[in-house]
Design goal:
This protein is mainly α. The chain contains four helices and no strands. It has helices at 3-13, 20-32, 39-48, 55-65. The radius of gyration is 18 Å and the shape is elongated.
């Protein structure tokens, strides 16, 4: 491993996580709605509140936190 790569990794370890505020907000919205919202609707809620966030970032953070949308079963129609 190159010396510069090693020191770059060490420098990043000492930095706080830049997504910690997004993790708190996404986790709060997810649990407020009992896990019924997916990444698209959580992105819409955050954008309605005035936060500029991309849906890809919300999806990545939800995967890191292990949050998945609970899909309700469709009613049977004959």
């Amino acid at each position: 491993m190159p010396k510069s790569t090693y020191y770059d990794i060490i420098k990043k370890w000492n930095q706080p996580n830049p997504d910690r505020k997004w993790k708190r907000r996404i986790n709060f919205i997810y649990h407020k709605h009992s896990g019924r919202l997916g990444y698209r609707r959580i992105t819409d809620v955050l954008q309605e509140k005035g936060y500029d966030v991309n849906k890809k970032k919300v999806l990545r953070i939800m995967r890191e936190l292990g949050l998945k949308c609970i899909v309700r079963m469709k009613k049977y129609k004959s």
